[in-house]
Amino acid sequence: MVFKDGEILSIDNDSINIKWTNQTAVSCYSHLWLRDNCRCAKCLHPTSRQKLHSSADVPLNIKPKKVEIIEDDAVFTWNRPLRHGQENGTHVTRYPLDFLKQYQSKTSMDKLRFNDVRPQTWNASEYIMNWVSYDEYMKTDECLNTVVQGLYNRGLVFLKDVPLKEDSCTKVAERIGPVQETFYGRDFDVKNVAKSVNIAYTSLYLGFHMDLMYMDCPPGIQLLHSLKNTVTGGASIFVDSFRAVELLKEKYPEDYRILKEVPVTFHYVNNGHHMYFKRPTIVTDEIHSGPAWDSHVNYAPQFQGPMDDLSPKMARAFYGAFQKLADFIEDPSLRYEITLQPGQLVMFANRRVLHGRTSFDPTSGDRHLKGTYLSLDSLKDKFRVLNARFNYIE
Ligand SMILES: [Fe+2]
């Protein structure tokens, strides 16, 4: 059965085989999958686009009695009703051929979710600073798209001319999604205080880390807005951990493997809290073979707790591997350094870009940053929606 974009080659007992003209391989669709993904109003709620039956309702011996091509649809007449359904007799499904085409291959399915867009790793000299204007970001979706793409591709974006107001930081965040509130609050202040509950709130050197590794779902994005800065020192420092991992994998593949396997304890036991989570340092197959959010680096030495069940042999292997990764992270060629001035704001991918701060002289003046978080889900959501609107070329 030939149609405009392809041909139905055969209908087997459990699947239908379509040869699409735009690809060489034959696409195989199982009858179970097809019936489960019927597009009719009885199966898919017309306004919510949510399913009205469960995958558990599809009879295992379902198959089409008849398949036809009518205009731009493949029309299936099924041999039996759903289990538990009210319907008697036959059910008819019309699949737009474009719908079936979207699921023709792994490549087409990746495209559908924008999983084919690969992040670009960087070192200090490769990172290109492009200041984004606050006004433009707040007013135009084109500029919002630029920021979202930047957060995805490089994981580090800077805004300028952000009003010196306490709520500016959360307003910037809320252009992307709802603030991810934590036990630090809806937003938080980074300034040096006496008897600090967090090393960030001191004037000490703050080494590279990611925030809230002891949470089940650490924030995907962190924002820091400079409200005041008259101190000497106190520069913000950033490193693309994906680049450090690439270097480790290339030079020490065995250490890379160890850091993917050994779970590290992160905890925060202080100030009436007991937060705890274990995760390996590297969570990725290949940074360049999947979307950026399938790869994570979990690195926050300041928030590590004593590791559980670490035999002396594993300790040697883990500490050796961890030190090699740390040496790459600390290599000056990877470090992007900037002293944020009042009105400047940085947004970075907290599961990828490590951040830290050089020490400063607390007697030399005041330093005040306002910070907040966004979930990774919010970034993923905006990334897909804006890609479909601005960047997607079939
Ligand atoms: Fe931090």
Keywords:
alpha+beta, about 30% strand, elongated, binds fe (ii) ion, 10 helices, NE0471 N-terminal domain-like, 23 strands, six-stranded mixed β-sheet, about 25% helix, 2 domains, four-stranded antiparallel β-sheet, about 400 residues, Double-stranded beta-helix, single chain
Overall CATH architecture of the largest domain:
4-Layer Sandwich
The N- to C-terminal Cα distance equals: 26 Å
Indicate the percent of residues in helices. 25-40%
CATH topology of the largest domain: the name is Double-stranded beta-helix
The distinct bound ligands, ions and cofactors come out as: fe (ii) ion
Overall SS class: alpha+beta
What is the CATH homology-level superfamily of the largest domain?
Answer: Clavaminate synthase-like
Sheet having the most strands: 6 strands, mixed
Mean pLDDT: 92
The number of domains is 2
Beta-strand percent range: 25-35%
How much is the radius of gyration in Å?
26 Å
Number of helices: 10
The shape is: elongated
> How many E strands?
23
Largest sheet: spatial strand order: 8-9-20-12-23-10
Low-confidence stretches: none
- Class of the largest domain in CATH? Alpha Beta
Characterization of the model:
By secondary structure, the chain is an alpha+beta fold. It folds into two domains: 2-112, NE0471 N-terminal domain-like; 132-391, Clavaminate synthase-like (Double-stranded beta-helix, 4-Layer Sandwich). The protein contains ten helices and 23 strands. It has helices at 31-36, 97-102, 106-112, 134-139, 141-153, 168-174, 241-251, 253-261, 312-330, 376-391; strands spanning 2-3, 6-11, 15-20, 27-30, 64-70, 73-78, 92-96, 132-133, 156-160, 188-190, 206-209, 221-229, 232-233, 236-240, 263-270, 273-280, 282-283, 296-297, 336-338, 345-349, 353-357, 360-361, 367-374. The longest helix is centred in the C-terminal third of the chain and has 19 residues, at 312-330.
